[in-house]
Design goal:
heterodimer; A: Arp2/3 complex 21 kDa subunit ARPC3; 7 helices; 70% helix; B: alpha+beta; six-stranded antiparallel barrel; 31% helix; globular
Chain lengths: 172, 269
């Protein structure tokens, strides 16, 4: 239990550092910055007690906002995908009841991981850019930026999940 | 009463979600109003110190470019000084003579790809900076200070949807307002230009000196393209002279007469 908490803290800090120091400076094609920090939301263990999870995701989002001077847009988007995470997961896995303790995202089939990550990332980025631009006039640029940046984020997220969660299954 | 307690218990997860979203949106809206983003900004002690450290780590990569830029500016200033040499030394100069005081600072965090961009610089209240001071670099206008803490300040960049800067044509005294549409970080837009103003592609745009933020004559950019429709100028695109993607040292302008000007203007109301 304590080991789990330490891992989570470590991952929380590491993802913020990577996001702020490296990823926010990439500017792929001049504007694209992947938002890998939402990997924390994907990998957070499923638990019955979900209020703490909402608070942590709010904290994660607002920390990113602190560093990028963006008010609370990252916090709003991150809390939203944290809220819908469980229902999305149930929808994709076609289960009404999940085994909370044994569930591990890395153990699911690749196609399910990809669709789970894709849905949440698209929603997150759409809220993020929607709040950033916040006008109907720029709806085109909002869609364009959300989709192109999402592709970048999804690729990085999937690679990280495969790299770090599948160690045990890859060994046999 | 029992019903309410039951309701709260049943939907407490959803209510917490709503509460956090409202909190996040409040921060967002607050950050949009020019002077009110007191809480979530990178001018506070933690994030400021953090950016200073990371900046000092990566600083050497741009040293060569920065040196060249400063050397170039020195040449320009020396040439200008040479022209005015006689004038300057025939004046009796005391400290009340200067209207503007310049501070130098370093940009420790820069963004230019979002809709509302801000910069963080490594000088703050302790160094004499306050809100509403103009910031320029050797190549032109950068922005306006909108937040100060003890040792850091954030700058509302010209690349910000809420930034409005008073400018004029260099060749004729017609005024306009500089804004940004959020698309290209090299190009900003000019509005409210009178229709009788003579305008040509390639004309220079400079600061107007009508506000206390910037003295007159600081270069902003050149006209890239414009349309003349319905007897007025539309869609005037300005190519910025400043490369906003690579800012190193910047200058902050303190107008010593600002208080006096503001006071006398307020007397009129």
């Amino acid at each position: 239990m304590t080991k789990e908490i330490i891992t989570l803290c470590f991952r929380f800090i590491l993802l913020i550092l990577i996001q702020v120091l490296v990823l926010n400076k990439i500017l792929f094609f001049g504007y694209m910055n992947p938002n890998l920090y939402i990997l924390f939301i994907f990998l957070y263990p499923l638990k019955k007690e979900r209020s703490a999870f909402l608070w942590i995701s709010f904290l994660l989002g607002i920390s990113i906002d602190f560093f990028s001077n963006s008010g609370g847009i990252n916090a709003a988007a991150t809390v939203f995908i944290a809220y819908i995470r469980l229902s999305t997961l149930k929808l994709i896995l076609n289960k009404s009841d999940l085994d909370f303790k044994l569930f591990k995202l890395g153990d699911e089939s690749l196609i399910k991981i990809v669709s789970f990550v894709t849905i949440l990332t698209l929603i997150h980025h759409f809220i993020l850019f929607g709040l950033d631009y916040f006008s109907w006039k720029s709806i085109g640029i909002i869609f364009y930026k959300s989709i192109t940046t999402s592709i970048f984020t999804i690729i990085l997220s999937i690679l990280s999940i495969l790299l770090f969660s599948r160690k045990k299954t890859a060994n046999f | 009463m029992q019903q309410i307690v039951y309701f709260i218990q049943k939907y407490k997860y959803f209510l917490l979600f709503l509460l956090l979203e409202v909190l996040a949106l409040t921060f967002t809206i607050q950050s949009h109003s020019f002077h009110k983003s007191k809480f979530i900004n990178s001018a506070n002690a933690i994030t400021g110190e953090f950016f200073k450290q990371s900046h000092s780590f990566f600083e050497y990569t741009s040293l060569k470019k920065e040196n060249l830029k400063l050397a170039k500016e020195n040449t320009v200033l020396r040439n200008a000084l040479d022209l005015k040499n006689k004038e300057i030394f025939s004046y009796k100069i005391d400290t009340t003579f200067h209207k503007n005081i310049y501070f130098t600072a370093k940009v420790i965090n820069n963004n230019y790809t979002k809709k509302n961009n801000t910069l963080t610089i490594n000088k703050g209240r302790n160094h004499g900076l306050t809100i509403d001071m103009g910031v320029i670099s050797s190549n032109g206008i950068v922005g306006i200070i909108n937040n100060v803490s003890a040792n850091y300040a954030t700058v509302l960049s010209v690349l910000n949807g809420y930034s409005k800067i008073n400018v004029r044509l260099k060749n004729s005294p017609f005024l306009g307002t500089l804004t940004w549409d959020g698309k290209d970080y090299k190009i900003t837009q000019l509005h409210d230009i009178e229709r009788q103003a003579p305008m040509q592609i390639g004309d220079s745009i400079i600061s107007s000196g009508k506000s206390t933020l910037f003295p007159e004559g600081i270069i902003v950019g050149t006209i890239k393209e414009f349309d003349f429709k319905d007897k007025k100028y539309q869609n005037v695109q300005i190519q910025l002279s400043n490369d906003m993607s690579s800012l190193g040292h910047v200058y902050i302008i303190k107008n010593k007469h600002k208080k006096e000007i503001k006071q006398i203007e307020n007397n009129n109301d």
